[in-house]
Amino acid sequence: MSTSDETELCYPHLGNSSCRKNVRPHSVSVSIYTTLASLSVLTVTLNLMVIITISHFKKLHTPTNFLLLSLSIADFCVGFLYIFQIILMDGCWYLSANWCLFYSVICLVLTSASIGTIVLISIDRYIAVCDPLHYPTKVTVNRAKMCIVTCWCCSVFYTFVYMDILKQPSLSYSCIGECQAYIHLIAKLMHLFFSYIIPVTIIVLLYVRVFVVAVSQARAMHSQVGVVTPHGSLKVYRSELKAARVLGVVVVGFLLCLTPFYIVLLNIRFGAVNMSSLVFVICLYYSNSFLNPMIYVFLYPWFRKCLKYIVSLQILKSGSSEANIL
């Protein structure tokens, strides 16, 4: 075997039993690695800011913000998954089979938790806009925390059920140097159904309902604002509506990043799925974890104010948790 052929193998000394690399120009490879590394750092940093902000400032301890905190924790962890994608960019897996299995499990847990949290956020906004009078009694901080814990527990349970249907990645290698798993037809349909069709249907139906109710209530309040609508109620409603719009942007961004992955997954033949062949749509999906905190920066004034507290180290001062950042 020639030297030029050996450079295309993940493990040249293993010959034909080794997987082949995805050969790219050096400049292209450097650009891809730099972009992924930058996204990893920014995703981890920005979501850490969200976690610190909501955890530290007591004024932000609301059911909606705790849901955002859960989403940010998942996004924060996703930032570290870019490391595995960087490894897979040339189509070679240089770590052990156990690490491949670990990556698959963690990825599924985090993505399932993110999807579940997005559904909870949609339900929260639905109740806040469509039933604002009963929202404080129906949606409490304790109930929000219970829902979040349940969501993460269900994500872990779903992951182990799904992975039990899959064969071990180490048993389905077609060559040495890849991280792949044989996806059984039942597992593929189950994942499509529970991780995409059901959540997306719930999210879309709830936000369509929120939009219809918001428009009708806005018209009614506009015509009666000077007659029977208390100013305080109008202010609260506008606040809830603004929160619904912001979180609606989060949901839209999530769906735009999520959908391509499932389109590609459906177009791949049933059987072995090579992780490197899905690298683009997986990275696009991961990029949503960077997009979410950016949405908060541009659309939430309180988040920008909290960032100033953190960057200027005012957060270290005594009593800073009681600051009025709203």
TrEMBL record:
Keyword Isomerase recorded:
no
One GO MF term, please?
A: trace-amine receptor activity
InterPro entries (UniProt xref)? GPCR_Rhodpsn (IPR000276), GPCR_Rhodpsn_7TM (IPR017452), TAAR (IPR050569)
What is the membrane topology here?
Multi-pass membrane protein
Record key words, sorted: Cell membrane, G-protein coupled receptor, Membrane, Receptor, Transducer, Transmembrane, Transmembrane helix
Which part of the chain is the G-protein coupled receptors family 1 profile domain?
46-296
Q: Which GO terms describe its cellular component?
A: plasma membrane
Please give the superkingdom of this protein's source: Eukaryota
Record carries keyword Cell membrane? yes
Subcellular localization, as worded in the UniProt entry: Cell membrane
Segments traversing the membrane: 30-54, 66-89, 101-123, 144-163, 193-215, 243-265, 277-299
Where mainly found? membrane
Family, per the entry?
Belongs to the G-protein coupled receptor 1 family.
What is the name attached to this protein's record? G-protein coupled receptors family 1 profile domain-containing protein
